[in-house]
Q: What sequence folds into this?
């Protein structure tokens, strides 16, 4: 078995980043954090998640993230499966975040994309079937 345990993201501000992800994942918590030096740069970091999966946020980000609408080399987006997309949208909108893109929508799934406070594109998808061939239908 293999599964993704965490993503490690360099961010501008831990507080605003945490606000977005706490709205998206209200059942997650800050698992831990600290301060240290990474390649000569002081940084603060936190791990936000549950007992099995988490996001690692490291502050002191600099520069600009690649444009999400472009084809520059780099990270494009990451996605989470949710059980109630409407509730997730309500929480994020109430926290001051807007849907960036209405994604796919058909009988088997709906998805939306948000841009987090650092410019990372995050997709949230709700599936209406557990049948892999229907969830992973390609034209």
A:
């Amino acid at each position: 078995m293999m599964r993704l345990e965490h993503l490690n993201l360099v961010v501008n501000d831990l507080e605003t980043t945490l606000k977005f992800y706490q709205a998206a994942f209200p059942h997650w918590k800050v698992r831990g954090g600290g301060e240290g030096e990474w390649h000569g740069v002081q940084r603060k970091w936190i791990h936000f998640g549950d007992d099995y999966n988490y996001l690692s946020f490291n502050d002191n980000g600099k520069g600009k993230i690649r444009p999400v609408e472009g084809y520059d080399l780099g990270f494009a987006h990451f996605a989470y499966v949710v059980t109630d997309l409407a509730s997730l949208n309500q929480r994020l909108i109430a926290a001051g975040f807007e849907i960036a893109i209405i994604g796919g929508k058909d009988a088997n799934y709906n998805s939306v994309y948000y841009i987090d406070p650092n410019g990372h594109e995050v997709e949230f998808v709700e599936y209406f079937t557990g049948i892999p061939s229907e969830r992973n239908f390609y034209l």
Summary: The longest strand covers residues 29-38. The beta strands are 6-10, 29-38, 41-49, 54-58, 77-81, 99-105, 109-115, 121-127.
